Amino acid sequence: MRLHSGAPFWLVADGLEEMGQAAQVPATCDVAVIGAGITGALVADALAAEGLAVVVLDRRAPACGSTAASTSLITYELDTSLAELSEMIGREGAVRAYQLSSAAVADLAGLAGTLPDTGFAPCPSVCLATQRRRRHSLEAEVGLRQQYGIDAEFWSPECVTQRYGLPSHGALHTATAAVLDPLRFTRALLDRATERGALLLSRTPARDVRQERDRLVVSTDRGDTHARWVVYAMGYEMPPALRAGLVAPHTTYALVTEPLADLGPWDGACIVWETARPYFYMRATPDRRVMIGGADTPFENEAWRDRLMPGRTKRLEQRLQHWLPTVATETAFVWAGTFGETRDGLPYIGPMPGCPEALYALGYGANGITFGAVAARIVTDICLGRPNEDARLFRLDRSS
Q1: Domain 20-122+177-246+343-400: what homologous superfamily?
Q2: Could you tell me where in the chain the CATH 3.50.50.60 domains are found?
Q3: How does 353-363 read in b/e, with b if 16+ C-beta sit within 10 Å?
Q4: Delimiting residues of CATH 3.30.9.10 domain(s) in the chain
């Protein structure tokens, strides 16, 4: 078994070729996107498609931050149920957030269909009631979603066992889900954005952002650029202006097995997760490995994260054995990734209070990739001066 603390096996094994141009920062641009992970790539591709002059900056190589550690389960699910979110922000806003997340899965499918070799594959998602007392609330959640036309079915324990061989007290089943390869998807988006005129500068950190008259000046080691808009797409590496306490960083752990000829009754046919908090989640890879993640813990520092790796790996292996008792697995690689969590499970998208030209595209929570697609739509509308009523749901100064 090989251990990695920050990046999964495919990044280490593939030796990916560096992306990005070796160039000076242009004196001016329409939009400077800080972050070349999957959210930054989604935003840059959408903006470049509209003909805007885009500069993408990242202190690393593209897709080598939290994107590289993503297990890439594409679902419309939020970490907060529709019932819980309704209590926090009201029924109308909660339903709209779920509808936007569901539409984003379709947006990602559409994008993947226009790009080469992204590993995108539609598949169902199953949320297991792993505790008997959770069955009633899961049934109620399904009924609530169905009331608003959101894809959800309740499956009995017998139905789950018959179809997938998974132990449960029932499950929420949805067909609106998928998996993808986060590195290939991000690189394909960035390739297309640069073909459309965007400038991608890897290993070029934004040292400072300051306001000068009607422009924001982004300072880098390769020079300054005066941008009409700046988009922060930095993942869990929160911008300094983000108020303390709005986002709680957590570490999630993951492992992937050696390839398997037999995946049991499940056969990798769906994404699997559960009602417990924190929860475990599982999917299959195209080469028939099992990828499982979870055992989350609050992030303190990298040393503490790595010290917990052996114990968290054992917990993942135990959960894998519980879900797939007839499948003999061998762990191939393990890793950890850091993500941000908000109180209501929603991302931060939109302008900074007091500086509307500075925009956030921060897809915190379990479905950051889905939120990245939502952010691309909202940010593009803002930069083009088009109204977007959905931005109010994700504003930085919301209360929840």
Answers
A1: FAD/NAD(P)-binding domain (3.50.50.60)
A2: 20-122+177-246+343-400
A3: eeeebbbbbbb
A4: 248-341
Distance of CA 359 to the CA centre of its chain: 18
**How wide is the angle at C-alpha 131 spanned by C-alphas 83 and 299, nearest 5°?**
75
- Judge whether 254 and 337 are in contact, CB under 8 Å: yes
CA angle 76, 81, 86 (to 5 degrees): 110
Q: Which two tokens stand for residue 189?
A: 């988006």
Chunked in runs of 10, what are the mean pLDDT values of the chain (400 residues)?
A: 40 46 86 96 98 96 88 94 97 98 97 96 97 95 98 98 97 98 96 96 93 94 96 79 72 96 97 94 97 92 91 97 97 90 92 93 85 97 97 86
Q: How far apart are CA 3 and CA 205, in angstroms?
A: 28
User: Can you say whether residue 261 is alpha, beta or left, with left for phi > 0 and alpha for psi between -120 and 50 degrees?
Assistant: alpha
- pTM score > 0.85 for this model? yes
Q: How far apart are CA 296 and CA 306, in angstroms?
A: 13
317: Cβ contacts below 8 Å, ≥ 6 apart? 255, 329, 331
Buried b (16+ CB within 10 A) or exposed e, 138-150: beebbebbeeeeb
Number of CB atoms found within 10 A of residue 245's CB:
7
d(CA 367, CA 357): 26
Helix (H) or strand (E) holding 257: strand 248-257
Tell me, what's the pLDDT at 243? 55
- Give the closest residue to 310 by CA, choosing from 325, 300, 295: 295
Of residues 330, 319, 318, 320, the one with CA closest to residue 261? 330
Q: Measure the CA–CA gap between 344 and 80, rounded to whole angstroms.
A: 6
Class of domain 248-341: alpha beta
- The pLDDT of residue 363 is 86
CA distance readout (Å), 73 to 44, 76, 119: 22, 10, 12
